[in-house]
Amino acid sequence: MNIQTIENINELEQQIAALIAIEPRFAPVHKQVGTPNLRHNAGGFEQLMRAMVGQQLSVAAAASIWKRLVDAELITPQAIREATDDTLKTQGLSKQKTRYVRSLVDHDIDFAALETLPNEEAITTLTAVTGIGRWTAEMYLLFSLKRTDILAVDDLAIKVAAMELLGLAERPTPKQLKDLTQHWSPHRSAASLLLWSYYGSLRNKTAVPL
């Protein structure tokens, strides 16, 4: 299977052009917000662990705990295996987050193999880990695996921006949004990036999905 990815800004602009051809209402949005940053990351165990640590925390609190874990050299599978729960708690991990991180270690994901899996199979592999929901998995596919066709229909910012873009009377449910945007495929990652930027302009702030 040929896995489609967005590797650079030029490829993103090609994706946006194709998206606008399908959904012309993106044209004024693109003109307003410009071409979004890709915000790619290296992925792997560390990226997923950091996403778990940051769940339901402020950006500042998540950054503080992550720095403590980095300083204590507690960000690899081997280090987590060898650490006691009390050691992880000392660095700021709650009992629930400790359970999540240990589940990530136990699942021993083959991150290289993940790059060759179709989107839904990759999401299934990731969400098998306790503490990784579909949204976190989709963020991994979008920003770490660079997939072209990811629209996070559970994301609040995307729902709000899509409501404005599509002229809806109220915020769509995830199912409604999925149905309304099915024809944007296979360019839904470009749509996600534009909608986040659009949400930021609507709220006069930058929306940070991950």
TrEMBL record:
Molecular function (Gene Ontology), one example: alkylated DNA binding
Pfam families named among the record's database cross-references: HhH-GPD
Domain named HhH-GPD: residues: 53-202
Protein name: DNA-3-methyladenine glycosylase II
Group of enzyme by EC: hydrolase
UniProt-listed GO biological process terms: base-excision repair, AP site formation; DNA alkylation repair
InterPro entries documented for this protein: Alkylbase_DNA_Glycosylase/TA (IPR051912), DNA_glycosylase (IPR011257), HhH-GPD_domain (IPR003265)
Coiled coil: none
One Gene Ontology cellular component: cytoplasm
